[in-house]
Amino acid sequence: MSKKISTKLFYRYYGNWIDLYKKGAIRQVTLDKYYLTERKLRELAPELRLSELNRQTYQKLLNDYAETHEKHTTLDFHHHLKAAIIDALDDGMIKTDPTRRVIIKGRKPKPKKKKYLNLFELQMLLKQLKLGTEPNWDWFILLVAKTGLRYAEALALTPNDFNYEKQVITVTKTWNYKYAGGGFRPTKNPTSKRNVMIDWQLAQQFKQITQGMDPEKPIFVSGRAFNSTINIILERLCYQAEIPVISIHGLRHTHASLLLYEGVSVASVAKRLGHANITTTQKTYLHIIQELENKDNDKVMHHLSQL
């Protein structure tokens, strides 16, 4: 006997599906993205029922979403919904797959901001920093520029994470900066747990500014920390230095890019950044790697011509 097609409201089914399959199984930051999709679904299609889901109604839903979002964001919205829809299909709550041969649309992408600085621009930025005797956001910017740490990783650093003699920072956790109470959380992936070498000067500087601090508490934060705050500070510094404006995450890209240009291997850069695998690094910095390969080809040809 076939199951009866459900007349449940789509957004309610989706909310229940998140609680059943995703809650407690994925990171909070990822779970929040699913709940954001749920809110948008309720806004765009408050009366749409599972029994009314077909290729036309689903395409209209995506089209409505795409009117105010870029194509890649619409694709993410679709992927979140499709996972729940396929489960509804498997459970007999709908008859056919409404996502089949769907067309992804979207607004024209905004002009992309520069993601990283060159060496001269970074030097100009660092000259603007006011590095006093106590930790502040300028020290935070210097730290990220010299280590390539993720924002949440750098926020979670405690004095105990520094080995000043061996010039090493040990990354074992992140800071839950989006929530009022803050708190430590696991790293993005197991590979993100790593030792990051730092230069002698940075080691001595942080040894001085962290003296007397609780060795187990974060150096820069005690609760919630808005990344918009640090980006506003960074924007001001970029304007003062008369260089392109980048974000705090852009400093991570800058760090990796400069290492690659200096001839550091992709494998070593991937390990320093805490990427899950070298493929992530290759995809992220493909344009730089290709540029370096072209230079290498010139060197090969020059060498061969000498034989």
TrEMBL record:
Record-level Gene Ontology MF annotations: DNA binding
Pfam families found in the cross-reference section: Phage_integrase
GO biological process assignments: DNA integration; DNA recombination
UniProt keyword Nuclease, yes or no: no
Keywords for the protein's UniProt record, in alphabetical order: DNA recombination, DNA-binding
Protein's name according to its UniProt entry: Site-specific integrase
Family: Belongs to the 'phage' integrase family.
Keyword DNA-binding: yes
Superkingdom to which the source organism belongs: Bacteria
Residues in Tyr recombinase domain copies: 112-302
